């Protein structure tokens, strides 16, 4: 393996660790959810989306399959869009118009859920086991985070406990996601 390959996988571990940490923080915020914490949750999820975009671009450089390579780049663009919607727009619109703010959040939630479905589909299509479990956890994290951005809808139909359930799920998935990547550091010389 080239030196660049080792560096890329080391950076991937760092990026995955940041995504895991952000997932755990988001989960904890959901466990103690109030209306005031929603703004913090959106920013934290936006930061995670930014690192998911970086990681998706890194994965696209590691694979040869043209369709998977393209789909990873598409997912990177989706994640960048989520990051912009979560970090930039909410901060600008929070005190301007709450209806526009909610529209942006709901749109970001839909995009995030779509990104999660795409990640799971990509994991299923991957021939190599290198990224499979990691992408599945990443997809599940996106799905749960997307649903967590819809607290009004979720609590209206399922009660307040659903947010705590999402919070616990994000903490558990965040830890599992990091472990799935951390264990792979021993495979650096094998690929």
User: Which fold name corresponds to the CATH topology?
Assistant: Serine Threonine Protein Phosphatase 5, Tetratricopeptide repeat
CATH class: Mainly Alpha
Task: Tell me which CATH architecture applies here.
Answer: Alpha Horseshoe
The tally of helices reads 7
Radius of gyration: 17 Å
Give the percentage of residues in beta strands. Answer: under 5%
Give the oligomer, counting copies of the same chain as homo and different chains as hetero.
single chain
Number of strands: 0
Mean pLDDT: 77
Helical content (DSSP H or I, runs of 4+): over 70%
Span from first to last CA?
7 Å
Structural class: mainly alpha
Order of helices and strands: HHHHHHH
The biggest beta sheet reads: none
Q: How many domains?
A: 1
pLDDT under 50 segments (min length 5)?
1-7, 185-191
Shape: globular
Question: How would you describe this structure to a colleague?
Answer:
The protein is mainly α and 191 residues long. The chain has one domain (3-190): Serine Threonine Protein Phosphatase 5, Tetratricopeptide repeat. 83% of the residues lie in helices and 0% in strands. Helix 1 runs antiparallel to helix 2 (37-62), helix 1 (3-31) packs antiparallel against helix 7 and helix 4 packs antiparallel against helix 5. The chain is globular and about 45 Å long. Mean pLDDT is 77; it is low at 1-7 and 185-191.
């Amino acid at each position: 393996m080239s030196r660049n390959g080792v560096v890329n996988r080391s950076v991937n571990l760092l990026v995955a660790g940041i995504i895991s940490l952000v997932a755990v923080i988001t989960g904890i915020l959901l466990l103690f959810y109030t209306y005031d914490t929603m703004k913090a949750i959106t920013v934290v999820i936006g930061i995670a989306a930014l690192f998911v975009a970086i990681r998706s671009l890194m994965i696209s450089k590691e694979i040869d399959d043209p369709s998977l390579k393209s789909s990873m780049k598409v997912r990177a663009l989706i994640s960048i869009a989520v990051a912009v919607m979560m970090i930039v727009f909410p901060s600008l619109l929070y005190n301007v118009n709450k209806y526009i703010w909610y529209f942006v959040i709901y749109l970001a939630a839909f995009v995030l859920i779509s990104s999660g479905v795409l990640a799971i589909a990509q994991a299923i299509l991957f021939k190599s086991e290198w990224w499979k479990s990691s992408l599945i956890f990443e997809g599940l994290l996106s799905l749960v985070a997307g649903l967590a951005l819809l607290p009004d809808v979720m609590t209206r139909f399922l009660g307040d406990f659903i947010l705590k359930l999402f919070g616990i799920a994000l903490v558990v998935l965040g830890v599992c996601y990091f472990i799935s990547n951390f264990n792979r550091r021993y495979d650096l010389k094998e690929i």
